[in-house]
Specification:
Layout: E1 2-3, E2 19-24, E3 31-40, E4 53-58, E5 65-67, E6 77-79, H1 81-98, E7 104-107, H2 119-122, H3 135-145, E8 149-168, E9 171-187, E10 196-211, H4 214-241, E11 244-253, H5 258-268, H6 272-285, H7 289-305, H8 309-323, H9 332-358
Parallel strand pairs: 4-7, 4-8
Antiparallel strand pairs: 1-7, 2-3, 3-11, 5-6, 8-9, 9-10
Helix pairs in contact: 1-4, 5-6, 6-7, 7-8, 8-9
Length: 362
């Protein structure tokens, strides 16, 4: 057993979301679109004392993965079970550790199953449904690791299609598609069954031009492709067990007059209170309902940035009421965004109770 050490994100002090990209919407010079990150709850909630640490185990059967290249100049390459399972095992533990949710993330290096199974038998979804770690084994491993929970990779299937074309000039074009499926489960000591299980899927296609170097093709690329597949699938799996960050789109209106431009400049410098003060004064004095609606959306954004989701939702509803008094053709884009924003905020409000519980926020 060994401990994985990766850089952590401190979810306790991270801001509600981070603005990281700005794009000017071409059809309206006053609408600036941002991609933001919002924190979402995990699919399951562990008991309060079960997130101090977790151990990741390999509960899969042995699988050999064969890359067969469709060219007469290259032979097959076989990635043995130790390589394939270690890649997914390590990437899953890494993805969990990077969330910062568990204080310790440990790897249990001894496979729980040593019997072999053919790849074709693993591809059946029905074969995913019969895996279970005995409660005695869960108790033994968690006690040895000194952690409160156990996460297992129960099944792994890989459907790989690859073709290599000789395109001349000592170059090859490699075309690989990997479809992967994984079953992951959570266990806590003392329970007869798993806390929850999830079956996840991912598919990647990689097109790459490489030199006609058989050592590169046969030795390095298959592992590189599997690592990319393992990374994608592990990121998905981690969201089942730990709160995670997801990208969403927001809009900020600016440029209608000098005061709106000033407020926008304040926002760029993260002077949110100064920007909000300007918008609230403009909202009270503005007579045009479309412009008032835009200002209301800006105020909603400022409220959301302070994690005041209910207040933000109130301002979005005010914007929609104001847009309703205008001709639909003149505010179609604004209404579409406001409705989308309303849905996002309602979802955040619903999720916040669960997220607070998972983060132990009173």
């Amino acid at each position: 057993m060994r401990r994985k050490k990766f850089p952590r994100t401190d979810w306790r002090i991270r801001l509600p979301f981070v603005l990281f990209s700005l794009i000017l919407f071409s059809s309206c010079e006053t609408a600036h679109y941002f991609m933001i990150e919002t924190q979402k709850p995990a699919a399951i909630t562990f008991p309060a004392n079960m997130t101090e640490g977790t151990v990741v185990v390999n509960n899969t059967r042995d699988v050999d993965v064969t890359f067969t290249y469709n060219t007469r100049d290259l032979s097959s390459v076989i990635l043995k079970k130790d390589t394939v399972l270690a890649i997914f095992h390590d990437f899953f533990a890494s993805a969990l550790d990077e969330t910062g949710y568990f204080r310790n993330v440990l790897l249990y290096n001894v496979p729980l199953k040593e019997d072999s199974a053919s790849l074709s038998s693993i591809l059946s979804i029905s074969s995913f449904l019969s895996e279970k770690i005995p409660s005695e084994k869960v108790m033994e491993i968690t006690r040895e690791a000194g952690v409160g929970s156990l996460l297992s990779i129960d099944r792994l299937s890989l459907d790989i299609n690859e073709t290599v074309h000789d395109i001349g000039y000592n170059n090859l074009f490699v075309d690989v598609t990997i479809k992967s499926n994984i079953k992951v489960s959570a266990y806590i000591p003392g329970e007869e069954t798993s806390l929850a299980s999830f079956i996840l899927s991912d598919s990647i296609t990689i097109n790459q031009v490489v030199e006609s170097n058989s050592n590169l093709i046969l030795k390095y690329l298959p592992k590189q492709f599997l690592e990319q597949s393992a990374y994608n699938l592990s990121q998905k799996a981690a969201t089942c067990f730990a709160p995670y960050w997801s990208s969403s789109e927001r809009v900020l209106y600016a440029g209608m007059d000098s005061r709106m431009k000033l407020a926008y400049a304040y926002m760029q410098k993260e002077h949110r209170k100064e920007a909000a003060d300007i918008w609230k004064k403009l909202y009270d004095s503005e007579k045009n309902n479309k412009k008032r609606g835009m200002i209301a959306i800006n105020i909603a954004l400022s409220e959301e940035m302070y994690d005041r989701h209910a207040e933000a939702l109130t301002w979005v509803k005010k914007a929609l009421d104001l847009y309703a008094s205008e001709k639909p053709s003149k505010v179609a884009n604004e209404i579409a965004f406001a409705r989308h924003y309303q849905k996002e905020l309602e979802e955040r409000i619903t999720q916040q109770v669960l997220l607070n519980r998972q983060l132990r926020v009173e």
